[in-house]
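Translate sequence into structure tokens.
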Amino acid sequence: MTTSTAALAAPERLRGAGLRVTVQRVAVLDALSAHPHASAETVHSHLRDDLSGVALPTVHGILNDLTGAGIVRRVSLPDAGSALYEVQHTFDNHHHLQCVDCGRVEDVACAVGEAPCLHPSHDHGMRILEASVTYRAICSDCERKK
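Result follows.
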């Protein structure tokens, strides 16, 4: 196993971020790894079988902790009923493709290069950290249904 952040297992990522390793935090990270772009409610539903006692507010708290530690990224997309979450990887620079019909979200590599990859015409004296692009489209499944 390499030492890059992308290759680290959940316990190592938690320890590396200075967070205590708990069964619930590991389960949330594993659920997000298996189901990226998931809402807190979706993560909670994936945990119910293995961790029947975990409550939705606990999942929200864990997601906030993981986001604050830089392990998870919060993604806000138009027409998504709530914030979506994905595991953040080192040197990851991507945007999102969202179906306007079913809401499916896919990652799209940045076409320009390293973050922030896009620069505004005027930065108003601010140092740009990232640029967020959402491509809105219709997926092939929804297109076939029409």
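Note: Helices lie at 10-16, 23-34, 40-47, 56-68, 140-145.
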